[in-house]
Amino acid sequence: MTEAWKALSQCLPPGNANSDAWWQLTGRHLAAIVDAAGYPLEKQYEALLFHYHWTVPYMGRAPGPWLRSPADLPWKSLMALDGTPIEYSWKWNTKKPGSTPNVRYVVEPIGDDAGTELDPLNQRASRELLFRLKKVLPGMDNNWASHFLATLFDHDDAVFAREAARGGHLGTSVQLAVEFHDKATAIKSYFFPRKYGQAGLMPLEQWQTCVDELRMEIDADAGASAAVFATPARTAVDNFLATSLHGKHLTPISLAVDNVAPLQSRLKWYFHTTQTSFASVRHIMTLGGAIAPPEMDALLDQLASLVKVVNGLADDFPEDAEVPAGSELETSLDFGELSKALKGYLYYFDIAPGKAVPEIKLFVPTRYYGRDDLALGRALTQWMEANGRGSHCQRYLDMLESLAGHRRLDEGKGLQTYVSCLFKKGELDITTYLGAEAFHPGRLAPKGEPCLTKRSTLRRGDSY
Fold first, then answer.
1. Which of 79, 164, 402, 435 could make an S-S bridge to 32, C-beta 3.0–4.6 Å?
2. 368 annotated as belonging to a binding site for a ligand
3. Which pTM was predicted?
4. Where are the alpha helices (DSSP H) in 178-231?
5. 188 annotated among ligand-binding-site residues
6. Is 124 annotated as a binding residue?
7. pLDDT of 124-158, one tens digit each?
8. Cβ-count burial of 51 within 10 angstroms (0-12 exposed, 13-18 middle, 19+ buried)?
9. Mapping DSSP to helix (H, G, I), strand (E, B) and coil, where does residue 138 land?
10. Taking a C-beta distance cutoff of 8 angstroms, is the pair 460, 119 a contact?
11. Is 268 annotated as a binding residue?
């Protein structure tokens, strides 16, 4: 237990059964993560209190003796393979002296009426939370989020309810991220489109139309016509998607914005590809050679070594070969059109104003590729140490152990779900994404019944 968790656990009032169960699990997780990242004690309190008051009440039904399988949930979140509606992330420190990791999490708010005729796409809780948070977070702005809520979805709930009654698949459509910066807490919105009769992922042309209608500034005259949203970064991405062989293999799946004034926001457009060779990574991360700063060759060499480490590949693994699966995915949930995106790589392109070319981030799904959580954690921290970024490696491994209270790290994978990377200020900006595994059998075994034996997989000083 961390100091902040001990103090808060003694004074916070109990909520309902679901909130209390989520707080006991995810509150402890968040406490361990922000403490391991070196957050000052006052920021740890801030993060935990925000989570307690603003996130936990919106997490829906919690696992426990009364609910042992996500299959029994009235609304099944697709945030994780096991239905857990939260994922944490640890943005690694850089080489700069004094640099520390940044922590955030993404959650799918779940309303009481999610999946019913009143709320077939489970959006009411997210809308309510965005509305309420705008009143308390300085600088929060929901204009771009409102635009995509209006344009990426059809809005006759009765039609969606009839589709669901006929066996149609309705799943996660909105997620919110909470990021704990040095100065203030920040919110981001993620959107997964849903149109009437949608049988697959939304076509690129429909995405482009929704982005076309985006406004940089909100005019006083709501009826005023606006120019097509165009930025140099967007033009570069559109051209790449239309002309590059690797670009033509990219399928749009999601979009995200910062909930700040449009001129300060990012606009992150997420794509999936089945291509996993480093040749394809090299081509996409440079936008087919359009992004070519002087340090690009060195950055690509570092990225190649990182990708091999994360995927458990030999140093001489061919650049043009596809990465073999590390394991099969285990899920009882129906991911619908998003099931294809569970394998392969993900990328996002930030096409917001202020950039001549987009920032591009690669996501490697470590729950599918690579090795168990212990092997991945050790390999990743070894890479960080070798590249001058080892200040928080032991703390990271100890934190992983604290998340894995239900199983040994070497007995499975999924606590580390993705490793991502973008090029920023001449360095690799690296983030590890962490799952809660709330519905893992090791967490849900009734008292007195056999469950997965848990003993530590690390000893102090035994990281490498």
1. 402
2. no
3. 0.94
4. 204-212
5. yes
6. no
7. 999 999 999 999 999 999 999 999 999 999 999 99
8. buried
9. coil
10. no
11. yes
pLDDT at 459 over 50: no
Kindly tell me if the per-residue pLDDT of 398 is higher than 90: yes
What does the block give as tokens for 375?
């092997």
| pLDDT score of 184 | 86
Q: Which pair of structure tokens corresponds to residue 433?
A: 């994404």
Q: Identify which of 112, 111, 124, 107 has the alpha carbon closest to the alpha carbon of residue 50.
A: 107
Q: d(Cα 51, Cα 463) in Å, to the nearest integer?
A: 31
Taking the C-alpha atoms of residue 105 and residue 417, their distance in angstroms, rounded to an integer, is 13
Residue spans of the domains in the chain: they are 3-217+225-444
Give φ, ψ of 285 to 5 degrees. -70, -20
Question: Rounded to an integer, what is the distance from CA 417 to the centroid of its chain?
Answer: 9
CB atoms within 10 A of CB 104: 22
Asked whether residue 450 carries a pLDDT value surpassing 90, the answer given is no
pLDDT value of position 67:
81
On the CB side of 354, CA atoms within 13 Å amount to 10
Distance CA 5, CA 352 (A): 38
Average pLDDT, the chain: 92
- Kind of pairing between the strands at 185-191 and 174-180: antiparallel
Write out the two tokens for 108.
């799918």
